[in-house]
Automatic annotation (TrEMBL), chains A, B, C:
Homotrimer; The trimer binds only one molecule of glutathione. The chain crosses the membrane at residues 9-26, 83-108, 129-146. Its EC number is 2.5.1.18. Keywords: Acetylation, Endoplasmic reticulum, Membrane, Mitochondrion, Mitochondrion outer membrane, Transferase, Transmembrane, Transmembrane helix. This is Microsomal glutathione S-transferase 1. InterPro entries: MAPEG-like_dom_sf, Membr-assoc_MAPEG, MGST1-like. It catalyses: RX + glutathione = an S-substituted glutathione + a halide anion + H(+). It holds the Pfam family MAPEG. Belongs to the MAPEG family.
């Protein structure tokens, strides 16, 4: 069944998986940016810039903008990790290049839009739809994996 | 050492990894279901159904049932991601099919039971034991990977 | 382009990925240890050792030491998952063994140091630098994946 890791589908998967994982990784510096500009931290050792003990205490709080970016990051972990696992197994079932590209592009596009919709934020149902489209692409690949491996 | 991605062990891994990742993904709609029925959201743009500003505020809270499902989802991320990574590397060390199936089935079974034990919830130590059995299966596969690759 | 899963680079990747994923998995028992010694739990069914209802309530709280370990675990999920995905794709681009080993060792070393710096904790910028070095190793591998697959 598997068509090997030299196929064009595998090259495409490598590219799209790397792009969407890099996007996920960029949520970390974005959280850092919001922590610095909102002056809001989670660890006492991160409040070295504080001048007084009261300043230190004020910097150890929960900020709504920071929490929004963190929820977006968490949603990425919950959705991009499954895509990468199921996408790799799907790639090895030897799908058509055009069908595979459609799945990879729809998923990556939906997650880029999801991030924009979450961070700005856009009105619902923008974020909800983006999440659903990404789930749909992953479910469709999972269906092919399960039907090809003769569950 | 590796026995290729055409082996029967790889087909079995594909199937079980996909099943357990799909189970993890289903925690997202389950969280959504609890958010809707408990009327409890994390983002202000998700409270569009509210009629008054007071309603909006009341909908932005932390609900114990929602948090329980979210902790279960987080535990999946912390345990299923390692299983998938170590399971793939284990598959490529060319284990016996029967030994590999034992590992995959024990892990997937323990995680299905873990979810039931967490969400209902069942009395402890149900959830704790399910978690430990899953960890054990992954550790056992990791041991084979490290001993086969001649650390 | 890919040089197969029989290469020495793949064996090295298997070893280092397994080590760093095992390290991540050990954060779970560490959280358990802190929960038990701090007598602080998240679920009501985990407070079976309590003798009175007041004891039960006191055990359901948020403890700063437990939260620190959990943040460290979360940071592992956010950084080690991308390393494993991009590291696997990087391995299949057929890099030099010595260059690949450098990437794997720098990443794994940075994450071991990150955990120490987070849990003790060490003064900043110890933890921040460890995080950045790990991100750098993953970004460098991602660059090779994208340039080899002719984006």
């Amino acid at each position: 069944m598997p068509s090997g890791i030299d196929s064009e589908v595998f090259l495409a998967f490598s590219t799209y998986a790397t792009i969407v994982v890099l996007k996920m990784m960029l949520m970390s510096p974005m959280t850092g940016y919001f922590r610095l500009t909102r002056n809001c931290f989670a660890n006492v050792e991160d409040t070295g810039m504080a001048k007084t003990p009261e300043d230190k205490k004020r910097m150890l709080r929960v900020d709504p903008d920071v929490e929004r970016v963190r929820r977006c990051h968490q949603n990425d972990l919950e959705n991009i990790t499954p895509f990468v696992v199921i996408g790799l197994l799907y790639t090895l079932t030897g799908p058509d290049l055009s069908t595979a590209l459609l799945h990879f592009r729809v998923f990556v596009g939906s997650r880029l839009f999801h991030t924009v919709a979450y961070v700005l934020p856009l009105r619902q149902p923008s974020r909800g739809l983006a999440w659903m489209v990404g789930m749909g692409a992953t479910f469709s690949m999972a269906y092919r994996v399960l039907s090809t491996t003769h569950l």
